[in-house]
C-alpha cells in the first residue's frame, strides 16, 4: 500500500461542518487516486467498515464515533480543456466553480458557495438556485467496490434525481475518484437564470442570461444572507445546509395535505407547490417547518434552528449529535402532527438514525 497519512482514535468532529461526532478507530488521508483505491481495497479485504469523508458538510456522525476506517479524500486535480472539466474528488467544490467562472464558462455558476468536495457532488446530485450537477456531469469515474475495479459511469447510469443518485442508493459500493463536466461557452454569460429569487435580485426575467460572474456573486450574496456560506465565526453555518429535503407528494397525498393546510391555516392558505414529474408535487420543507411553529432561531439548547434559515439545524458551539437529533426529531414530529407529512433528512447519518 502506498503511504497515506494515518491516525488512530482520531476525532472526526473537526472534519465536519457540524463539528459533531466521536472518533474513528483509524483515519486515513489519501492524496492520490492510487492511495484511495489501496485504502478501500485494504478495508474491503479485511472486512473493515469504511467511511468516506470529503468536506464533511453533509455528515451527521454519532457521538460514539465510527468503528472502522475513515478515509478522507484529499486528491487534487482541476483540468479544463475548452468546455470540458475534470475534477479530482478532493477538489474544493466552490473554488472549482470560481475557476470555471473566471474562465468565462457557464453551467455551475449558481452552485457557488456549496461547501464540500467535488467528489461528493454526484452523491446527492447537489443543487441550488436553479442548477443541479446532473445537468452538466457527463461521466463519473469511481472505484466499484463490488467489482473491485475502477469504472466510468455515464450520466444516464448515475440515476440522478432530486437530491439522489445511484451513489446514494448504493452507499457502500462506489468511491468517486473523478467527475467530468461539460460546461457552456456563452461568451462569458451565465446559463439562463432559472430561479425566481435570483432573477428578481438580478432584475431580469427568468430565462435571461447575465454575466456568469454576476450570477455567481449574486448567489453568494443570497446564500450568505441565509447562513449558507461557511463562516467559522457564525454558528448559523455550523450545519449541513438544509437538514431536510423538500417532500415530494403523490396527487393523493397532496390532496390530503392541502386539506390539512386549510384546516390548520384557513381556507385561503396555500402551501408552496411545484410540479415534480407525472402525478407528483414538491412542497417546501422550510414552509412546513415554519408553519408548524418552528421559526428561525427555534430551540433553547445547544442545537437550534438557524437564525437565518428555517431549514438549517445548527450547533451553537456546545452541542452533541444527540442534541441535534433530539431537535431534528422534534421538528419531524411537529410537522407530521400539523400536516401529516414526514420530513426526511438530507445529510447522511453515520452510526445514528433520525
Ligand atoms: C452551509 C451549507 C450549505 C449547503 N448548501 C447546499 C446546497 O445549496 N445544495 C446542496 O445540494 N447541498 C448543500 N449542502 C450540503 C453539502 O455541502 C453537499 O451535499 C456537499 O456535496 C457535500 O460534500 P462533502 O465533500 O462535504 O461530503 P461529505 O459530507 O464528506 O460526505 C457526504 C456523503 O458523501 C459521501 N462521499 C463523500 N465523498 C465521496 C466520494 N469521493 N466517493 C463516494 N462517496 C463520497 C460520504 O461518505 C457521505 O455519505 C450544504 C452544506 C452546508 C454546511
Automatic annotation (TrEMBL):
InterPro entries: FAD-bd_PCMH, FAD-bd_PCMH-like_sf, FAD-bd_PCMH_sub1, FAD-bd_PCMH_sub2, MurB, MurB_C, MurB_C_sf, Oxid_FAD_bind_N. Residues 20-186 form the FAD-binding PCMH-type domain. Pathway: Cell wall biogenesis; peptidoglycan biosynthesis. Keywords: Cell cycle, Cell division, Cell shape, Cell wall biogenesis/degradation, Cytoplasm, FAD, Flavoprotein, NADP, Oxidoreductase, Peptidoglycan synthesis. The active site is at 163, 242 (proton donor), 346. GO terms for cellular component: cytosol. Transmembrane segments: none annotated. Cell wall formation. NCBIfam families: murB (TIGR00179), PRK13903.1 (NF010478). This is UDP-N-acetylenolpyruvoylglucosamine reductase. It comes from Streptomyces tabacisoli.
Amino acid at each position: 500500500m502506498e503511504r497515506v497519512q494515518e491516525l488512530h482514535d482520531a476525532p472526526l468532529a473537526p472534519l465536519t461542518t457540524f463539528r459533531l461526532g466521536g472518533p474513528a478507530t483509524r483515519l486515513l488521508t489519501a492524496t492520490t487516486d492510487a492511495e484511495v483505491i489501496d485504502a478501500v481495497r485494504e478495508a474491503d479485504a479485511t472486512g473493515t467498515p469504511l467511511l468516506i469523508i470529503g468536506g464533511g458538510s453533509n455528515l451527521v456522525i454519532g457521538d460514539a464515533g465510527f468503528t472502522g476506517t475513515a478515509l478522507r479524500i484529499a486528491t487534487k486535480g482541476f483540468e479544463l480543456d475548452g468546455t470540458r472539466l475534470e475534477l479530482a474528488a478532493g477538489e474544493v467544490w466552490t473554488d472549482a466553480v470560481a475557476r470555471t467562472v473566471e474562465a468565462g464558462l457557464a453551467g455551475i455558476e449558481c452552485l457557488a458557495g456549496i461547501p464540500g468536495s467535488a467528489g461528493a457532488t454526484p452523491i446527492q446530485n447537489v443543487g441550488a438556485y436553479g442548477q443541479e450537477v446532473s445537468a452538466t456531469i457527463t461521466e463519473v469515474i469511481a472505484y466499484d467496490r463490488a467489482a473491485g475495479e475502477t469504472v466510468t459511469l455515464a450520466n444516464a447510469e448515475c440515476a440522478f434525481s432530486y437530491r439522489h443518485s445511484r451513489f446514494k442508493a448504493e452507499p457502500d459500493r462506489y468511491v468517486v475518484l473523478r467527475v467530468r463536466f461539460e460546461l457552456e461557452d456563452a461568451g462569458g454569460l451565465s446559463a439562463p437564470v432559472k430561479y425566481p429569487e435570483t432573477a428578481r435580485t438580478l432584475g431580469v426575467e427568468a430565462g435571461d442570461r447575465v454575466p456568469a460572474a454576476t450570477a455567481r456573486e449574486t448567489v453568494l450574496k443570497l446564500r450568505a444572507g441565509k447562513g449558507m456560506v461557511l463562516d467559522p465565526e457564525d454558528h448559523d453555518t455550523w450545519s449541513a445546509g438544509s437538514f431536510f429535503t423538500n417532500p415530494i407528494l403523490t396527487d393523493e397525498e397532496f390532496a390530503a395535505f392541502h386539506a390539512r393546510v386549510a384546516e390548520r391555516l384557513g381556507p385561503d392558505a396555500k402551501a408552496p407547490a411545484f410540479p415534480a414529474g407525472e402525478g407528483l408535487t414538491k412542497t417546501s420543507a422550510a414552509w412546513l417547518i415554519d408553519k408548524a411553529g418552528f421559526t428561525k432561531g427555534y430551540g433553547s439548547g445547544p442545537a437550534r434552528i438557524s437564525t437565518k434559515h428555517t431549514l438549517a439545524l445548527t450547533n451553537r458551539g456546545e452541542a452533541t449529535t444527540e442534541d441535534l437529533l433530539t431537535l431534528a426529531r422534534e421538528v419531524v414530529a411537529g410537522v407530521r402532527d400539523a400536516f401529516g407529512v414526514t420530513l426526511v433528512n438530507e445529510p447522511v447519518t453515520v452510526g445514528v438514525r433520525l
